Amino acid sequence: WGEDERTQTFVAEYGAAYDDAIPNQFAADGYDCIYAIYEACQKAGVTADMSHEDICAALISTFTSSDFSVDGLTGSGMTWAATGEISKAPLVFEVQDGVYVAR
Fold this sequence. Notes:
The longest helix has 20 residues, at 25-44. The chain contains three helices and four strands, in the order H-H-H-E-E-E-E. The strands form two sheets. It has a two-stranded antiparallel sheet with strand order 1-2. The chain has a two-stranded antiparallel ribbon with strand order 3-4. By secondary structure, it is of the alpha+beta class.
C-alpha cells in the first residue's frame, strides 16, 4: 500500500475492523466511492432536509461539472463524464517479496 497518511490510516482501520485482514483493491475502491460521494455532497450543499430528487440532481450536477475531482486511494484526479464513467490516473502496485511496491 501507499505510504501516505490517509492510505496508512485506511489499512490500519480496515485491519482493526476485520480481524487484521489486509484490504484488497475492492475495499479501496469502495472507500473511494463513499469518499467521492461525501465530497460531492459537501460541494453541492446537500442537506438532510432536501428531497431525494433534489439530492440526486445536485450530485449529478456536481459529479459531472468540470471543476469537481477527487484524489482517492486508488487514483488521483478522478472525474466523471456525463454518462457516469470515471476517469482517473490509477495507482499501480506490485508485490515484491511480500511487500506492496509502487510502480
